[in-house]
Amino acid sequence: MNSSAGIVRFDEARPIALITAREAAARGIDSVLIRDVLGRFCLALDDRLGGVPEETVAKWRTELQRRLGPYAAPNPVLLAERLFAAEAVFDSPRVVEEQDSRPTPGQGRIRSLDNTVVGEDWARVTTPSPEVAGVRTARVALYGFKGGVGRSTATFMLGKHLAEQGWCVLVVDLDLESPGSGPLLLAEEATPRYGLVDHLVESAVGNAEGLDLVERASGVSITGNGELWVAPARGRGQDGAPYAYVEKLNRIYADIPGSTHPSFADRLERAVSACEKAVEERSRRPDVILLDSRAGIHDIAAVAISRLCDLALLFGADNIQTWQGYSDLFTAWSTSSQAEAVREKLRMVASMVPNNRRADYLELFRDHAWTCFSMLYDDLPPDDMSGFNPSPEDTSAPHSPIPILFATDLVGLDGAASPGWSDTPLVQAAYDEFLNTATRLIIEGLQ
After folding, report:
1. What is the pTM of this model?
2. How far is CA 132 from CA 219, 286, 287, in A?
3. What domain range is 157 assigned to?
């Protein structure tokens, strides 16, 4: 609580609500701390196996109202026996164990349920199905907290490199607000009629069958038996009809509460699966899917990292914006008890590394990354090796940076007007270590 003014703000509300939850746990009562879309808290007590005295309920209700002020829900204490569908709260798949609140014998559990308008999928980490019909497909998300770090160019380079190794690769341009890899890999005339945005709009009304979503990359020379396919964010539309991209984009994130329509996260997952199926129908099942995610703390990035991929390459430059942004994101994973589920599929990429001071730059980058990632690692004594707590020098750890050197050839590049740009010696040298390391990580995931 803000002692100088006696006012509770958003950041103080959760620790204050946890005080009452811990009192309940000390009495052996399981509880779920529920935060609504305005940030207000109520405490749901599981009294199905034993009642909670009414005077205790009244006491906790009064204390929560007094302690939380505007961040107390209208009814700050709920009892399972009086809820119409208690299982919707206590057995919800969205409920997560409250951090550092694992019960000891005789104590109750404390769990949390966070209701938000956007961004909920950051706190719901899952792993894609490992294989279909015995065939393994690796899904890799390429993400940067801030734009302008070369993520789409790296997606282009990695897709081309993997295809030249003989793999069937699908690049999905998820940067819907600012399409990047799609225009790099596809000439306008080769773009399919529909894009990801069309599938997201049409699937909301059950009308997504039969969309033309993928095409082979054009203007990219692939040697060997590999294939490179692209699912662009936007399509080319129908001849003679305007392509209403902005109008579609304005509707794709909308979820209709209480309806049978799939959520945005479900629709995005189905869109990626539809693109994967389209490649399989026209050629063969993709070995690797590269998800070129949009930047920032956005629902697309949340779904791509938390739900759609088994490897997430996190791009950044060594500056305060990068580390502050990733710190906020890692804090969200840590406080929602998702650190253990997400940390081992993360790997940091140091983009635009200055070649003339590469070693010093990467050492500083690594140290800053380790400080940031530490909140996702186990807090262990120095001699305890039982958990996951890699050292700063561990080159296989999530924080260990994969470098991409700064290449002057890429400044102001118009890829469509510069055929062969990716094969120049400067560009190849800049991406060499990134391509080799990322390829190794992907192949290890396929085995």
Report:
1. 0.80
2. 31, 11, 11
3. 123-446
